[in-house]
Structure formats: structure tokens, C-alpha cells
Amino acid sequence: MLRRLETSSETPDTSMNHPPKVWLITGISRGLGLELARAVLAKGDLVIGTARSGKTPLPPETGRLHVLPLDLTVPAKARKIVEIAHSIHGRLDVVVNNAGYGLLGAIEECSPEEFARLFDVNFFGPLHLIQAVLPILREQRSGHIVNLSSIAGVAPGAGSGLYAASKFALEGMSQVLAQEVKPLGIKVTVVEPGVFRTDFLDPTSIHNASSVIPDYASTSGKTIAYLDQLAGKQQGDPVKAAEAIIRVVESPEPPLQLLLGSDALNRAQARFDERAEEIKQWHSVTTGTDLPASA
Ligand SMILES: NC(=O)c1ccc[n+]([C@@H]2O[C@H](COP(=O)([O-])OP(=O)(O)OC[C@H]3O[C@@H](n4cnc5c(N)ncnc54)[C@H](OP(=O)(O)O)[C@@H]3O)[C@@H](O)[C@H]2O)c1
Predict the structure, then answer these.
(1) Where are the domains of the chain?
(2) Among 45, 55, 166, 206, which residue is least crowded by beta carbons within 10 Å?
(3) Confidence (pLDDT) at 17
(4) Mutate to test the pocket of ligand 1, among 25, 26, 28, 32 (most ligand atoms within 8 A of CB)
(5) Under CATH, domain 3-285 is a member of which superfamily?
(6) Which residues pair with 96 in a beta bridge?
(7) What residues contact 125, with CB distance under 8 A and at least 6 apart?
(8) pTM, two decimal places
């Protein structure tokens, strides 16, 4: 099962003055996971990556890169992967739940099979992995869990409701996890990318709901058409996303949530402003439900 890559063709950055960190990254076959694994290896750290095929295009590295096969459609398999990953170097320092995919379609259009699979890969897989890794990180009294969410997990739009729901679940769980593990020396960061030029919008990754209801043409249908023509033209650079994630992991005070890309920033800001305005407008109704102080 374990594929150890034997020869080296990349020169690590040996200028670092700390021992190499051990990273466990899911989904290093392509996209953001691949670029992150590449950048982590280039700076001299160790990578244990997962890929459905057990393969990655990365050049072989003497003992510094291990690739394990993992398909998150059976999310509990993530537990076994943690056990194998931990046995390789005897520690895990950074755990990145990166593997995931998008499901497009109006909420009514997505079938139970489609949304169950989506949640297995985008939420239950990471949850199993996190639960399996926590005893190791607690024992170490150190570690950083990085979960790849999305701008859809902050400011969702029509046509991405269930994808957004899977990322909101990841966001909510991560926010609480951060509070629970902080006293134990463990950090948690949720990364919220906008559109990045990976295979994410390619038919090999993105899934469209199998049923199409004409009534949703002007909402969900419009988003799907927009994203379809955006494939291959996204403004986000996956290499820079990888650099940003490394910067966060190296920071003594990493953020709980990190937006990536100016499109993500603009969408999030618009959503926060809308929410602030709505809170202001409905303030008296919100506070009007309290029992009197004397009750
Ligand atoms: N790129 C964007 O615009 C964007 C925006 C917001 C959030 N994100 C998030 O960023 C993460 C990485 O996406 P990406 O842009 O790098 O997309 P990508 O290029 O499509 O890569 C997705 C990765 O996830 C893996 N994966 C998919 N289904 C899997 C499954 N059932 N089991 C295990 N691995 C699976 C893929 O493996 P295979 O090669 O085997 O398919 C691949 O390694 C995802 O969580 C995504 O939701 C991306």
C-alpha cells in the first residue's frame, strides 16, 4: 500500500534553522494539494500525501515524500491513513484536509446520493481524519490542522448550496475545534479560497446535479453557466495559495480563518456588510424576545 519514492531531483532549502516538520496532506494528485506538497518539499519539510490513485506527478524524493492511497467516499478510511502516516516518522506536525470537490445545482436538483457523497468527501472524511489525528497531536502538545473550506463556506451563491453546506459544516466544526484544542498546544486554521486555477471547475472534478429543473435557470443555472466559462481562466494562482498556507503555518499567531484571493475578500466583505445592516435593521426584534430582567 505504501509507496516510498526513492530518488531525489529537487534541492530542499537547507537554510532553515528548525527541524523539518511532518505534513500530512490529502489530495496531492493535482491542484492546491499538489502545489502545497511541492512547496513544502522545496522548503525541506517532509510530506505524507494522499491520492485516490496512490500517485502524484511530484518528482521522487529520498524518504521525504510518501504517497498513500485514500478515497474519501469511504470517509472512515481516513482513520487508517493517519495510523500509517504516523508510523512513518513517528510524528505529525501539520495536517491539511485539502481533498474535496464541488457539486453544482439548485438544492432541489441534487439527489440524496449526490449530497451524501459530497458530505462524505468534504466533511465526514476530514472529520474522521481529525478525530484520528487528535490523540497524536494531544500527546505531542503541538500540531496545526488546516482545513480547506471555500468562499462558498462564507458567502454562498445560488447553485452551490450543498457544496456550501459541506464547507459551512467544516467551518463550524473547525471554529469549535480551535477553542477546544488551543489549551493543548494545537492550532486550527480554515482556508477560504476564492476561484483558483486548478482542475476544480474541470469536468474531471466538478459534479453537476443529475436533474435540471427549468425554474432554476435564472438562479442556479446562471451560476453554472458562469462557472463553466470561468474554467481555466480563474484569477487565483495555486502556487501563491500554497505559499500563503505555508506562511500561515509558520506564523506564531496563525489566523482561525484565512480568505484567499481578492474575489474571496470582496464577496466576504459584501456578505459581512449585508449581515451587519440586517442586524441593525432588526435589532429591536432580536432583543425584544428576552424575558424581563425581573422574571
Ligand atoms: N480551486 C478553487 O477554485 C477552490 C475554491 C474554493 C475551495 N477549493 C477547495 O480546495 C480544495 C482543493 O481543490 P482544488 O482546487 O485543488 O481542486 P482539484 O484540482 O480538483 O483537486 C482536488 C483534489 O481532491 C481530490 N479528491 C477529489 N475527490 C476525492 C475523493 N473522493 N477522495 C479523495 N480525494 C479526492 C482529488 O483527487 P483525484 O485527482 O483523485 O480526483 C484532488 O487531489 C478542495 O477542498 C476545494 O473544495 C478550491
Answers:
(1) 3-285
(2) 55
(3) 63
(4) 32
(5) NAD(P)-binding Rossmann-like Domain (3.40.50.720)
(6) 25, 146
(7) 26, 72, 75, 78, 97, 99
(8) 0.94
